[in-house]
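User: Please predict the structure of the protein below. I'd like the answer in structure-token form so I can feed it into my own downstream comparison script.

Assistant: Understood. Taking the following sequence of 103 residues as input:
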Amino acid sequence: MSDPRFDANPRLKEASAHVSKAGLKYLVTELTCWAAGGPQTYSGRSMTESHRHLMIGDDDWEWFMDDLRRSMDACKVRAPEQQALLAILERSKSAIVVAKGEG
């Protein structure tokens, strides 16, 4: 949420001002654990419902993935686990990213 690259998208910038960092971290952690096989369940809204209004584009997605990779590197997450998590998240891209001309 603190990456200045996301400020280029005014909807993301506005949303980040109204979202609790702790709440977002909780939901992302819950979702990640659920998507990786649990046993947690995800209690948040669908990816489409949570993100479509933000008009997230391919650049925003790539910046997010870059931040995630950097975070995993900083936490010394091994490459196989990084690749597995990135693959899991990549499956949600179509529900989050708005295609050009859409919206």
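That's the full token string. Residues 48 and 94 are 9 Å apart (CA to CA).
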